[in-house]
């Protein structure tokens, strides 16, 4: 076998190895971006719910509609266009205050059914995120 034939085989194997490594790296990079996007959406909704619960405690804990609007629109009244934060709708945000009239009075903001989209070619699609529940005790 000649030296040229051996070098040609090495060049071809280098291209195959590069293709395998780049494909694996690309899938891992897209997966990391998808995970980062999910974490961003989840944490942004948690912070919005916390902020709205605190706002509700300070202003009027019994005005559940205004607190719900704070989660959805970052204002106490609904705007004309009605586009919620990160695609939220009013049916996805529930505000309650169990324990009314007792020492265990608290404000609960619950976000459910929010959607996020993955870009990964193997698991791509739209998924529903886990429920978010924020509980703030009143008067403590």
What report would you give on this structure?
- The protein has 140 residues and is an alpha+beta fold.
- It has one domain (3-137).
- It is 47% helix and 17% strand.
- The protein is built from two helices and five strands.
- It has helices at residues 3-58, 64-73; strands at 93-96, 106-111, 115-118, 125-128, 132-137.
- The protein has a three-stranded antiparallel β-sheet, covered by helices on one side. A two-stranded antiparallel ribbon has the order 3-4.
- A hairpin with a 6-residue loop joins β3 and β4.
- α1 (3-58) packs antiparallel against α2.
- The termini are far apart.
- The model has no long low-confidence stretch (mean pLDDT 87).
Question: Key terms for this structure?
Answer:
single chain; alpha+beta; three-stranded antiparallel β-sheet; 5 strands; 17% strand
Number of strands: 5
Please mark out the parts with pLDDT under 50 across 5 or more consecutive residues, or reply none: none
Beta strand %: 15-25%
State the separation between the terminal residues, measured CA to CA. Answer: 85 Å
What Rg is obtained from the alpha carbons, in whole angstroms?
A: 25 Å
Shape: elongated
Average pLDDT over all residues: 87
Looking across the biggest beta sheet, what order are the strands in?
1-2-5
Helix and strand element order: HHEEEEE
Task: Assign the structural class, choosing from mainly alpha, mainly beta, alpha/beta, alpha+beta, or little secondary structure.
Answer: alpha+beta
Q: Mind describing the biggest β-sheet?
A: 3 strands, antiparallel
DSSP helical segment count: 2
Please give the domain count: 1
Helix amount, in percent? 40-55%
């Amino acid at each position: 076998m000649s030296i040229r034939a051996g070098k040609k085989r090495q060049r071809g194997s280098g291209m195959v190895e590069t293709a395998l490594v780049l494909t694996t790296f690309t899938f891992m990079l897209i997966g990391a971006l998808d995970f980062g996007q999910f974490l961003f959406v989840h944490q942004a909704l948690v912070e919005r719910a916390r902020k709205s619960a605190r706002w509700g405690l300070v202003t009027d804990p019994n005005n559940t509609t205004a607190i719900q609007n704070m989660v959805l629109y970052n204002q106490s009244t609904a705007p004309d266009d009605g586009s919620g934060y990160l695609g939220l709708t009013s049916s996805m945000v529930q505000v309650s205050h169990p324990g009314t009239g007792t020492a265990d009075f608290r404000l609960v903001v619950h976000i459910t059914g929010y959607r996020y989209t993955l870009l990964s070619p193997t698991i791509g699609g739209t998924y529903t995120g886990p429920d978010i529940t924020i509980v703030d005790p009143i008067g403590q």
